[in-house]
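C-alpha cells as discussed.
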C-alpha cells in the first residue's frame, strides 16, 4: 500500500501548485461560458486534472536513483506480449481449490490479484468523466478508445524509460495492462450514472445559464474578479510609467494614481462603462436608474475605490517614516507610539474591507460592494 501513497502524495502537491495558477483563468472561462460559476463543473474539471496527475504518477513513480539503470535481470525483460498472463500469475501465487472457499479469500488477498484490480481501477475514473461529457450510452466506444490510448501512452512511457531519460526501461511493458486498463475505462463508463446522479447534469447547467442571462444579473464573484484584473492592469501601467520617472515613494504614488484614473475612470467613461476586467468577464457598469453609464456615477465609483487605497498608502508611508531609529531616546518613544497607532489603523482598515468583501460574496447576490452602493452603479451583461 505504501508504494501507492508516495505517487498520490506527489500528484497532490503538483495539483495544488497547478491549481494556484489555473483557478482564476478557470473561473473566468467558466463565467464567460455559463454566465455563473458552476461549482459542480469546477469539481468535475479539477478532479479530472488530479486524476490524470495521480494516474501518471502511479505509473512512473518511484523512478530509479540513477539514469544508468541497465543492471540486473530486469534490464533484459522489457515487455510481455502474451495476453492473460495475469491469470497464470494468480494461479501460481495463490492456487485456488474451488471446493475450499478459504482459498478464494487467499486469492483475493494475493499480490497478483490486487495488481489486476489496481490496473482495472486505474482508468475507471476516465470512463466516468467520458460519460459525464458525452452522456449517452452509445458513446461507450469513446471510453474504449480513450482508455486504450491513455494506457498505451503509459506503457510507452515505461518502455522508453521516460522517453530515453533512463538508459533502460525500469518497468515492464505489459499487454495485460493495456487490456485491464481499457476494460476499467469501459466499466467506469457504464457504472458512471451511479456517481453522476450526485451532480447536476450539463443540461441543467445550460438551463440555469439561460435563466441568468435573461435576468441580467451579475453576481459578486465575477465583479471581484473583474476588479482583480483591473488591479493587475493598473500595476502594469504604473510599472510602465516608472520607466520614464524618478524612483521614489511620492512618484510611485503618482504613477499608480495615474494608472487608476486611466483604468477605473477614463476607460469606462469613453468605452460605455467597461473596464479591462469587465471586458474579460463580459459585463459593464451602468447607472441603476437609467441603465446607462453616467460620468458622474463612474467618478463616484472611482473615488470610492481610490480613497481607501490612498488611505492605506499614506498609512504605509507614515509607518515607514515613523519607524524609530534608536538614536534619540526621547524621539524614539514618540515614534514607537506613532508607528504602533499607524500599524493598528492599517490593520483595521484591511480587516473592515476584508469583512465587507466576505459579507458581499456570501450574500447570494443580495448585497453590493460599497463602491457600487455609493455610486449607485450596477453590473449589467447587456
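Sequence:
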Amino acid at each position: 500500500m505504501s508504494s501507492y501513497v508516495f505517487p498520490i502524495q506527489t500528484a497532490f502537491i503538483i495539483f495544488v501548485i497547478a491549481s494556484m495558477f489555473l483557478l482564476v483563468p478557470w473561473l473566468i472561462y467558466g463565467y464567460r461560458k455559463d454566465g455563473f460559476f458552476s461549482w459542480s463543473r469546477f469539481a468535475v474539471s479539477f478532479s479530472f486534472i488530479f486524476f490524470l496527475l495521480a494516474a501518471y504518477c502511479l505509473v512512473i513513480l518511484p523512478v530509479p536513483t540513477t539514469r544508468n539503470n541497465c543492471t540486473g535481470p530486469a534490464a533484459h525483460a522489457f515487455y510481455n506480449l502474451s495476453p492473460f498472463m495475469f491469470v497464470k500469475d494468480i494461479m501460481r501465487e495463490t492456487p485456488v481449490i474451488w471446493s475450499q472457499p478459504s482459498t478464494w479469500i487467499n486469492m483475493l488477498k494475493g499480490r497478483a490479484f490486487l495488481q489486476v484490480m489496481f490496473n482495472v481501477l486505474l482508468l475507471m475514473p476516465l470512463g466516468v468523466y467520458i460519460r459525464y461529457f458525452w452522456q449517452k450510452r452509445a458513446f461507450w466506444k469513446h471510453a474504449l478508445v480513450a482508455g486504450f490510448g491513455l494506457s498505451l501512452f503509459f506503457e510507452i512511457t515505461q518502455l522508453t524509460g521516460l522517453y530515453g531519460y533512463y538508459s533502460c526501461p525500469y518497468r515492464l511493458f505489459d499487454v495485460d495492462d493495456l487490456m485491464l486498463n481499457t476494460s476499467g475505462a469501459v466499466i467506469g463508463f457504464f457504472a458512471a450514472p451511479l456517481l453522476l446522479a450526485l451532480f447536476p447534469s450539463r443540461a441543467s447547467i445550460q438551463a440555469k445559464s439561460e435563466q441568468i442571462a435573461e435576468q441580467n444579473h451579475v453576481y459578486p464573484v465575477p465583479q471581484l474578479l473583474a476588479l482583480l484584473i483591473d488591479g493587475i492592469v493598473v500595476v502594469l501601467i504604473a510599472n510602465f510609467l516608472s520607466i520614464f520617472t524618478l524612483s521614489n515613494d511620492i512618484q510611485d504614488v503618482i504613477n499608480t494614481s495615474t494608472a487608476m484614473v486611466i483604468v477605473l475612470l477614463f476607460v469606462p467613461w469613453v468605452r460605455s462603462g467597461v473596464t479591462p476586467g469587465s471586458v474579460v468577464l463580459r459585463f459593464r457598469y451602468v447607472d441603476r436608474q437609467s441603465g446607462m453609464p453616467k460620468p458622474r456615477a463612474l467618478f463616484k465609483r472611482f473615488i470610492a475605490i481610490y480613497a481607501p487605497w490612498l488611505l492605506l498608502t499614506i498609512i504605509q508611508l507614515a509607518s515607514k517614516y515613523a519607524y524609530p531609529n534608536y538614536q534619540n531616546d526621547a524621539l524614539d518613544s514618540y515614534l514607537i507610539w506613532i508607528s504602533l497607532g499607524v500599524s493598528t489603523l492599517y490593520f483595521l482598515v484591511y480587516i473592515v474591507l476584508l469583512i465587507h468583501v466576505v459579507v458581499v460574496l456570501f450574500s447570494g447576490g443580495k448585497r453590493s460592494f460599497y463602491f457600487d452602493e455609493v455610486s449607485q452603479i450596477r453590473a449589467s451583461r447587456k
